[in-house]
Amino acid sequence: MNITIISVGKLKEKYLKEAIDEYSKRLSRYCKLEIIELADEKTPDNASEKEELQIKDKEGDLILSKIKDNMFVIALDLKGKEMPSEEFANYIENLGVMGNSNIAFVIGGSLGLSKKVISRSNYKLCFSKMTFPHQLFRVMLLEQIYRAFRIMKNEPYHK
């Protein structure tokens, strides 16, 4: 299975880079992982709604340029479906069984994802209604993907 993480925003913190490196190493036993890091657009402090839409659209066009036609796209979106880890593992496993072996997870910038990216996505997933820093969220996503593979393989992993 090929897993691609497309994420807006550059990682700066060393401890987050180390966590991503660790989960990337762990995942190498289960899948081919690619992480695509895209530059975020600077948002002025008092940005109008129109300016925010333009920023989301610009980031969205950059995201879409990295999505291949054969990818099953899972958008991380507050309006998406929440699910426990076991259900997430089953979902990923079923995608593979159904022939969707190229999965792209998309993490938007601080303003979220553009309508065009949401329209291109095959599924919307929500981890929580809480707001998380995008850099930290990348680590959380990798951990859940790793946990999903451990669950799929009936390998021990804390609950």
Largest sheet: 5 strands, parallel
Q: Strand sequence of the main sheet, in spatial order?
A: 2-1-4-3-5
Rg, alpha carbons: 16 Å
Number of individual domains:
1
Based on secondary structure, the structural category is alpha/beta
CATH superfamily descriptor: SPOUT methyltransferase, trefoil knot domain
The CATH first-level class comes to: Alpha Beta
Count of alpha/pi helices:
5
Helix content: 40-55%
Distance between the termini: 24 Å
The unreliable regions are none
SS strand fraction: 15-25%
CATH architecture term = 3-Layer(aba) Sandwich
Organism: Clostridium isatidis
Catalytic activity: pseudouridine(1915) in 23S rRNA + S-adenosyl-L-methionine = N(3)-methylpseudouridine(1915) in 23S rRNA + S-adenosyl-L-homocysteine + H(+)
Family: Belongs to the RNA methyltransferase RlmH family.
Subcellular location: Cytoplasm
Explain how this protein is built.
It comes from Clostridium isatidis. It catalyses: pseudouridine(1915) in 23S rRNA + S-adenosyl-L-methionine = N(3)-methylpseudouridine(1915) in 23S rRNA + S-adenosyl-L-homocysteine + H(+). Its main location: cytoplasm. InterPro entries: Alpha/beta_knot_MTases (IPR029028), RlmH-like (IPR003742), tRNA_m1G_MTases_N (IPR029026). Specifically methylates the pseudouridine at position 1915 (m3Psi1915) in 23S rRNA. With 159 residues, this protein is of the alpha/beta class. The chain has one domain: Alpha/beta knot, CATH 3.40.1280. Helix content is 44%, strand content 21%. It is built from five helices and five strands. α3 links the parallel β3 and β4. α1 runs parallel beside α5. The longest helix has 19 residues. It is globular. The relative contact order is 0.23. The model has no long low-confidence stretch (mean pLDDT 94).
